[in-house]
Amino acid sequence: MNCASDGLIGEAARAMRRSDREVSNMEEIADILRRADAVRLGLRGDEHPYVVPMSFGMEATGGRIAIYVHGAKEGLKSDLIARDPRVCIEADIFHGNIETAGGGRRGVSTVYESVIGFGECERVHGAEAARGLGLILAHSGFEGFDYDRGAAESAAVWKISLDRVSGKRRPPEEQGGRLSEARERA
């Protein structure tokens, strides 16, 4: 897996502009994913990209990350995956906004951690689908939940094997920022 600061511009890889915020350690990237509430799945639509937020499960083994998602067996998402299994995932954790100051300038910035990855999406069945649903439930706070196996058969489970992944974060300590009071109350 390529775990470098490379986003895609056409087919060319490009270095992350703010390399000081780059997260390239696979364990740190997996940690961000574990703490994220959802992933956004980016698919190739007919006229425009199609992005849908999804609950997910994940596993990180042997330096590779696999994301599991589920949904209806029929519909736009299922059709788009079948047409082109190359996907993008994005996950983020929003920590709040901060006031910044430095070099005689004042501003407001966002404190965040994020991951973006690219890979192939494939529908899985049987034991692997059950494993994927178990990972989704565990990530959602329902580890070991005894779900209705019959009802689960009506859903599709997809596994996204990430080939390229990178992370980025902006800590609040950068430039002496402080979280806004409004976010601290939330």
Q: What would your notes on this structure say?
A:
This protein starts with 5 loop residues before the first strand and ends with a helix. It has a single domain (6-93, 113-171), classed as Electron Transport, Fmn-binding Protein, Chain A (Pnp Oxidase, Chain A), CATH 2.30.110.10. 22% of the residues lie in helices and 49% in strands. The strands form two sheets. Strands 3, 4, 5, 6, 7, 8, 9, 10 and 11 form a nine-stranded antiparallel sheet that branches. A hairpin with a 2-residue loop joins strand 8 (86-102) and strand 9. By secondary structure, the protein is an alpha+beta fold. The chain contains five helices and eleven strands, in the order E-E-E-H-E-E-E-E-H-E-E-H-H-E-E-H.
Instruction: Specify Rg, calculated over alpha carbons.
Output: 18 Å
Question: DSSP helix count?
Answer: 5
Tell me the total number of β-strands. Answer: 11
In round numbers, the mean pLDDT is: 85
CATH superfamily (homologous) name: Electron Transport, Fmn-binding Protein, Chain A
| The top level CATH class name | Mainly Beta
Distance between the termini: 38 Å
Oligomer: single chain
Strand content: over 45%
Q: Helical residue percent?
A: 10-25%
What is the overall silhouette?
globular
